[in-house]
Specification:
Blueprint: E1 2-3, E2 6-7, H1 24-39, H2 43-86, H3 91-106, H4 108-128, H5 135-193, H6 207-224, H7 229-234
Antiparallel strand pairs: 1-2
Helix pairs in contact: 2-3, 2-4, 2-5, 3-5, 4-5
């Protein structure tokens, strides 16, 4: 994504996370505030917050796979379909080029992931906590759960999204190649039979049968010696 005009490139081998990490000081302060909050609440509230964060974080990753990644794979299919018509057979290079285009858009996973967590987590916390929970406690618990869910989801996505995109695109490309090969085989069979009259019961010979017949004729011609080709074929 863009950050002050700077466009970050994502590669499947990237080791540093896409999501900006807070400083150690910020992390410690946040942890201390959370501990202070939970210290004054029942243990069940903390378990609820952690449960919601874990569940929504996991659902977030599944959601991104089913929406953003699926959409990128469909786009890749269109690009690959057009490229295959003019490609000289260097499919590995083609696949890498298409994936490189999609890695940039894969960064949207973090944005969409955060939106998903911010929307779903407060709803879940409100449902699971007792009705008598005060608005202030409910709000604080929801904020903590949102942060934990985002951390879980975005940590996984920033590390794995590029590899996931490539894996799914590669699987789709393999299916496309198989379909193309089957189509070409069918087209060749149609060409072989196109001169047959209507209702013809002619069965096209397998390539192996044709090769065997050619070899048999070659042996026959060698035995013929000085006889003409026509005599060999007719004899």
């Amino acid at each position: 994504g863009k950050n002050g005009g700077y466009i970050r490139k994502i590669t499947p081998t990237a080791t540093e996370a896409l999501a900006p990490k807070p400083s150690l000081t910020q992390q410690k302060l946040q942890a201390d505030l959370q501990q202070a909050f939970f210290h004054n609440q029942s243990p069940s509230l903390r378990r609820t917050v952690e449960f919601v964060a874990e569940r929504i974080g996991s659902n977030c990753v599944k959601h991104i796979k089913a929406t953003l990644v699926a959409e990128l794979v469909k786009r890749a299919e269109v690009i690959l379909q057009d490229a295959m018509k003019a490609e000289d057979g260097n499919y590995d290079k083609l696949l890498d080029a298409v994936c490189s285009q999609l890695y940039q858009e894969g960064a949207q996973a973090l944005i969409q992931g955060k939106e998903f967590c911010r929307k779903k987590v407060p709803e879940a916390v409100k449902i699971l906590l007792p009705e008598e929970t005060s608005a202030a406690v409910l709000n604080c618990a929801a904020n903590i759960a949102v942060g934990l869910a985002i951390e879980k989801a975005c940590s996984w996505l920033s590390t794995n999204i590029a590899a996931l995109i490539k894996r799914e695109v590669k699987a789709t490309f393999s299916r496309m190649l198989k379909v193309q090969m089957l189509s070409q085989s069918s087209a060749n069979e149609i060409i072989l039979k196109k001169d047959c009259p209507p209702n013809c019961q002619h069965q096209t010979a397998f390539p192996s049968q044709i090769i065997s017949e050619i070899k048999a004729q070659e042996k026959k011609m060698k035995k013929c010696g000085l006889l003409t080709w026509k005599a060999c074929w007719e004899g």
